[in-house]
Each structure stands twice: as structure tokens, then as C-alpha cells.
Amino acid sequence: MIIRQARVSDLDRILEIELENFSIEEAITRSVFEAHLREIKTSFLVAEKEGKILGYIEGPVVPHRYLQDLSFTEEIKDHSHREGGYISVTCLSIAKEAQALGLGRKLLTALKEVALEHEREGINLTCHDYLVQYYEKHGFINEGVSKSQFAGEIWFDMVWENKKKA
């Protein structure tokens, strides 16, 4: 298993995994993934085994503590060229065939390593209530109900802080 930066050639498989795991309302569209693949420089990772992508985690570097709905659009702005900031996870998704193998943990760990290497303040994301405990288990703090209106759902703001940056 290798974890590497995503490439444009990974798009079809990424979209396939996205549609396996998210409703049409919540799924990121092809055009948004294309924009993310072009724009995000350090924080769009895939887990690959024997040439097949089994999962991914992605999101831009942003200057604010909480994920903004703009991160789910084609107008994404990646601030990876600036110091500090947070990696704002817009998606973590694992192929159905590879779920329960610890790939989510491996991708989160790899993204934390990117945050440490690039001296980010931390990582933020939003999740449904049933995933709060999962992210807490991986070092994220639940900071309450998010202002996000994405897909008309209720989300919770989760933040992992880079203790070396504090």
C-alpha cells in the first residue's frame, strides 16, 4: 500500500469511490474534483495498492479554523504557498471493497504528516454526528455544530491541532 499525491489521471476512480459512499446531494461533482486536482498542491492524497486506488482524502490549505462551504466548489483557493493555515478536508472516502481495513486511519495519518511537514496549524473538517466519535478517536476535537449549509445537512466542526505549531 502506498499513499501518494493524487493525479488528474486518478479522477475516474476517485469519482467512482465518491459515488459509492455519498448521496447525490453530498457527493462532490466531477468538475469540482477536476478543479481540486489542479489547484490543491500538497493535500490531495490517494491510497493505492497494486495500481488500484482504494481511497482518498482531500482538501485545500485555508487561512481559517473551520471548513467553509466554498471548499466544496470549483472556486477553491489553496493557500499552500503561504505559511500556517489549516488543511480543510472536504472528503475522506474509502472504496466499499476496502472498508474496515484501516485505510481511513492511514490517510488521516498521512495528512497529519503533511500538516506537520508544512507547519500547518492543523486540520479541519465537518462530519455527521455518527462520525464524531471516529474522528475523536483520531485526535480531532468536536467544536460544535458547524455553520456549514452543505447539502442541507447538520454538520459538526472537527479540528486536529498541530501541537508543534502551538
Tell me what the structure shows.
This protein has 166 residues and is an alpha+beta fold. The chain has a single domain (2-161), classed as Aminopeptidase, CATH 3.40.630. 25% of the residues lie in helices and 27% in strands. The chain is built from 4 helices and 9 strands. It has helices at residues 11-21, 30-39, 103-117, 132-137; strands at 2-5, 44-49, 52-58, 61-62, 86-89, 91-94, 122-127, 141-145, 156-161. The strands form 2 sheets. The chain has a 5-stranded mixed sheet. Strands 1-2-3-6 form a 4-stranded antiparallel sheet, sandwiched between helices. A hairpin with a 2-residue loop joins strand 2 and strand 3. The model has no long low-confidence stretch (mean pLDDT 93).
Features:
alpha+beta, globular, 166 residues, single chain, five-stranded mixed beta sheet, Aminopeptidase
Got a strand count?
9
Ranges with pLDDT <50 over ≥5 residues? none
Tally the structural domains: 1
Give the end-to-end Cα distance, rounded to a whole number of Å. Answer: 32 Å
Helix content: 25-40%
Across the major sheet, the strand order is 4-5-7-9-8
CATH class descriptor name: Alpha Beta
Largest sheet: 5 strands, mixed
Number of helices: 4
Judging from the principal axes of the Cα atoms, what is the shape? globular
CATH topology: Aminopeptidase
Q: Which value, in Å, is the CA radius of gyration?
A: 14 Å
What's the CATH architecture? 3-Layer(aba) Sandwich
Instruction: Report the order of strands and helices.
Output: EHHEEEEEHEHEE
Compute the average pLDDT: 93
CATH homologous superfamily heading: Gcn5-related N-acetyltransferase (GNAT)
% residues in beta strands: 25-35%
* Backbone structural class: alpha+beta
